[in-house]
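Late entry, evening session. Most of the bench is empty. Finally got around to the prediction I had been postponing all week. Sequence below, unchanged from the version circulated by S.P.
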Amino acid sequence: MITPTIMTTDPVLTLTQWLSPTFPVGAFTYSHGLEHLVATGVVTNAETFSDWLTDTLTFGAGRNDVILLAAAYNTDATDLQEIDDMARALAPSAERLLEADQQGAAFARTAAAIHNLDLSALTYPVAVGHAAHLQHLPLADTARLFMHAFAANLTSAATRLVPLGQTEAQAVLLQTAPLCQEIADKAITETLDDIASTTFATDIASMNHETQYSRLFRS
């Protein structure tokens, strides 16, 4: 029987470690379809990137992932597979499924090893939600930091792809922080029935990225 490591530090510090760029989930290799949007001239500067990021967080995977995270946090192990199956079904392209699957597997593998947890390979938001439940970390903080980490990773990708200057990229991320909090706080009160997406351009971009001639990112 696996005995989880008892947490004695501030839970925010644990979440900061889990969701920082140093945690080995390979987030830096995924752009969520942004690379194709840059290549086709849809995203060209800080303003157009900010618009795209806001839409992705509000109407796409950002909000949906937090709903999935909260569902995984609030359920027992018997329903976890059903939530994970739904997360996989929501992926609009093979690369977006890879993004969720590979990051989730890497997160589960590392979190299980360092905290002595019984964690199976799950999609990324489901794995984080379940691990936070096992470690008794606060759901609101988990959701907020997960959302901000998602936005930060896409900002890092935009910094390299557009390209954006580091200062203007950080200005976009700073402007997005209140939105991350707002979406996360509302999403944890919603259910799987509330999941919806209207980011069709991003979904199509992720499909087109699979056959793009020159690529730096895996999605």
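Two things to note before I forget:
The mean pLDDT is 95.
The two ends are 38 Å apart (CA to CA).
Will write this up properly tomorrow.
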